[in-house]
Description:
The chain is of the alpha/beta class. It folds into two domains: about 5-250, 3-Layer(aba) Sandwich (Rossmann fold); about 280-425, Winged helix-like DNA-binding domain superfamily/Winged helix DNA-binding domain (Arc Repressor Mutant, subunit A), CATH 1.10.10. The chain has helices at about 50-55, 95-105, 110-125, 140-155, 170-185, 200-210, 240-255, 260-265, 280-290, 300-305, 315-320, 335-345, 345-360, 360-375, 380-390, 395-410, and strands at about 5-15, 25-35, 40-45, 65-70, 75, 80-85, 160-165, 195-200, 210-215, 220-225, 295, 325-330, 330-335, 380, 415, 420-425. The strands form four sheets. The protein has a six-stranded mixed sheet with strand order 6-7-8-3-9-10, with helices on both faces. It has a four-stranded antiparallel sheet with strand order 2-1-4-5, with helices on one face. Strands 11-13-12 form a three-stranded antiparallel sheet. Helix 6 (about 200-210) packs across helix 7 (about 240-255).
Amino acid sequence: MTDDVLIELDHVSKSFNKPDGGQLLVFDDITLNIVAGKVVALLGRSGCGKSTLLRIIAGLIAPTTGKVLYRNTELVGANAGAAMVFQNFALMPWLTVQKNVELGLQAHRVAPAERRRRALEAIDLIGLDGFQSAYPKELSGGMRQRVGFARALVLEPDLLLMDEPFSALDVLTAENLRNELMTLWTTQDFPTKAICLVTHNIEEAVMLADRIVVLGSNPGRILADLPIELERPRDRRSPAFEALVDEFYELLTGTGPATTAVEFATATPTSHPLPHATVGGLAGLVEIVHGKGGRVDIPDIAADLGIDAKELLPLIDAAALLDFVRVSGGDLELTTIGKDFTTADIQRSKQIFAQQARTRAPLVRTICGALHDCPDGTLRADFFLDILQEGFGTQDAQRQFDIAIGWGRYAELFDYNSQTGQIAGGTGAETPVPVLTGGVR
């Protein structure tokens, strides 16, 4: 493979319209290129805009400013040199495996006989030979994702785009597919010249990529663009691998200035989305940090729990948002508020959580404020979902709403009746809680 440039992003920014007429800046001033012969990982937390960036590379979304070039020609529509593998498989349930794989070829008006030949070759390449007449409902999650790979590879694209393609799979299936993909990538007849992968899994990025681009949030900007020079196959237990993982953990968890009180006062539910964390999960993390003396290394917590450290990032984000912990490099430090929260009795703990959530979690604050302004103290959930969908899309809007409801119920700030679709103010909405300072213990 040669090092010719396939994709160039030149000062690309993307914003979406907000319900109030303003603009939500998703990412800003992204400049990078993707060359043949390389696997590039876009690494970042949820909400940093990496999936939107991937769709801009695919030509499915136009940038607000800047330009995208494919082989020195500016994109003005779908990128004919790219094919995408999605997180949720995106298969047509009424079509067989073979017909699903043929879809892209059919759109390119390839003759039926040629479509069949190329589809069967792709099915064989990806290890699904014998399943060409099966329907998606007959396949496991891993096999469905293989169909997604075959459907993309059959087009023989210059660039294979993958949007968290392993995140919907169980751990063992995901690991098997990663290894098989890398084995195929190193063969001479792999039908694509470069891969661009979106992930929030640090170990996955280090395992697969030749180059990792780290994106920050609010708005998304490039924090680092680093080559990975480990030979393949890569050993997760090697000191070099572990050192790179630690370096990227520090980049993802220890960069950027702390959000100030003024920023929290002006933050909106779309500019500062809630992390995907339950109250029990973030409370458990705070308890662990307290139990280890108030300061702990993030990878060490993951190792002690026997989990992938990526699973801790939303909990870390949530605990930091509520000022229960501070992130310093790759370490977590317990704050004064965090210690009070985790050592208090349950009622006092809930009061502290309520105070922090309604002042520092924008969506929770918005719901509390809207309920306070209503004469009967109730509102339909659809009101908030409609607002959230403008900034997040349907699925992520529902996820943000569910997180807020969980936090609000625990804090007794509000309750939600799923049968009637009504949100009502709770007994904790007006409970006075002294303002605490968040110094580190």
